[in-house]
């Protein structure tokens, strides 16, 4: 008689690891940017609402990470030879029941939706519709018959949804209107988050081809992926430096200064990445740090612009 497999308990620490807090910059910084952009532009909504929107984005990011780990595990995509950190592959190394991870992902998503709805109260349907679009993408990203993460559009979709729709939704929460112009000023966020996905997929080309994933790097090959990667980094640095000047004036130089002082070595290191499996961990750590630096500097410029408006307003 066969015996059922024995699993370890899903502890709070493992639940946090599944949420992958090291990736929260992909949602937290766009949320902070959306808040400060709205405040700098004179849109009125409370700090409490801003904090709730930030929390909602982090919960939804945690849901994405957990669902992604769950579906990759049950499909056999992840294994111990994939050059990932132990804390970044909980289902592979910690022997917890996959069903527990699925339930946890649903809990994270429910928390994000609940907090988001509270933040959107009295803001009308615009932010709710944007939130629904984001929620559908979350479910389709890792699940479904053909997950978005298995397609050549994964980088673009993740960048637009997290880097663009988060600020757009926050602006909608501020006054109930659709501020499409914020998508232009969200371009550094969109590119930075797309590059997180490209860093991962570019390092996993061989593994992804074996399991039938048709990501952008598997379609165009490593050489072209590295070239595109470097072009995107150059565009990202340029936009994070130039865009603040167009809307903030001299205050926008804050972004330029922060990037210039702290970013030179980090940017050079990332430009030299070859997106190979053996350097996957270093590549991923580097692109996360670049998101913190570049998009953090960009957001800091808008925060400074808001403070200036407060004192001169």
Keywords:
313 residues; mainly alpha
Compact description:
Helices cover 73% and strands 0% of the residues. With 313 residues, it is mainly α.
Question: What does the model show?
Answer:
- The protein is mainly α and about 325 residues long.
- The chain has one domain.
- It is about 75% helix and about 0% strand.
- It has 15 helices and no strands.
- The model has no long low-confidence stretch (mean pLDDT about 90).
Write down the overall geometry: globular
How many DSSP E strands?
Answer: 0
Strand content: under 5%
**H/E series, N to C?**
HHHHHHHHHHHHHHH
Low-confidence stretches: none
Radius of gyration, whole Å: 20 Å
Name the average pLDDT. Answer: 89
**Number of domains as seen in the coordinates:** 1
Number of helices: 15
Q: Which class do the helix and strand fractions yield?
A: mainly alpha
Main sheet specs: none
For the record, give the distance between the C-alpha atoms at the N and C termini, rounded to a whole number: 77 Å
Query: Considering DSSP H and I runs of 4 or more, what fraction of the residues is helical?
Result: over 70%
